[in-house]
Amino acid sequence: MRHLLDTRTLAREDAMRILDIAEDMADTQSREVKKLPTLRGKTVVNLFFEDSTRTRISFEAAAKRLSADVINFAAKGSSVSKGESLKDTAQTLEAIGADAVVVRHPASGAPRTLATSGWISAGVVNAGDGTHEHPTQGLLDAYTIRKRRFGADSRGRDLGGVRVVIVGDVLHSRVARSNVWLLSTLGAEVTLVTPPTLIPQDVTGWPARVLYDLDAALAEEPHAVMMLRIQLERMHAAFFPSEREYTRRWGLDAARLRRLPDDTIVMHPGPMNRGLEISSDAADSARSTVLEQVTNGVSVRMAALYLLLAGERPEPDKAGAS
Ligand code: CP
Fold first, then answer.
1. Which domain CATH number covers 209?
2. Whose CA is nearest to atom 5 of ligand 1?
3. Are residues 123 and 30 in the same domain?
4. Do 113 and 67 share a structural domain?
5. Residues with a CB atom less than 6 Å from ligand 1
6. In what order do the strands lie in the sheet with 43-48?
7. Distance of alpha carbon 167 from the chain centroid
8. In angstroms, what is the span from residue 147 Cα to ligand 1's centroid?
9. Could you tell me if residue 5 is inside a domain?
10. Which atom of ligand 1 is nearest to the CA of 53?
11. What's the ipTM?
12. How far, in Å, is the centroid of ligand 1 from the Cα of 267?
């Protein structure tokens, strides 16, 4: 792959390839010596213009386990505060020797601009851009669902017939977008459950069904329930009546958990608002894959970096992984 920018245009065969290589990477992570020599001599730059815990450390761990050198750049404390442009920042990092740039940015489309502008020749991975996409989160979520459904037989299997319910602030969620596109590409049936004020206007063009009643969606016995963070920082009072009312109608708690089949998993990309969209009972329950998702994220990002920096070049017309 040259870049990994979204899941909307990621071909099924490329998505399956990433998931299957992630399986191989996960096998290496259970060894005593986790490090592989694959990317020795390559440099990965984490270029983060927004805060992150999981994604940044996961990319750092993934690159280091493949023996790449890693440079972490945070916009906070950098010359971005003096007005330096994305182009100048990226070109400075490439001059230092970046082979791949992992970028998180508040502007939707910033990674694609970096990948297609000709400013730099390094491969670009989207680590979350505005409300657009977070493709490696979608991939690690798909990996987690597949692993929980099929265990050791996961390799080569898609998600045909798997029912996934995604609950919460879909309007602001790049995680929801990446999951909707990827999960449907892999054959899953996706249902979005959200307050009417938190659904994007273009949702009619998405490969997902929309419901407003969480209990009705849970009664259909989904295989996975993915809770989204309520992005309070992007909201005002009109989005929902009150936090208490939101939790009552769209929050996942112990009572709702008890009504689900025993093998339904509870997912959350993090960071969680405990007590708002998810109770501590649900977040810490045996069904919760929150920490498993973090562990799987390292294997998935190892696979993505491997394909970017050591794998074969794809056909030029595959835009999502072009
Ligand atoms: N899931 C996720 O993107 O978390 P961070 O914002 O901590 O990276």
1. 3.40.50.1370
2. 52
3. yes
4. yes
5. 52-55, 128, 134, 137, 269-271
6. 69-74, 43-48, 100-105, 123-129
7. 15
8. 21
9. no
10. 7
11. 0.98
12. 13
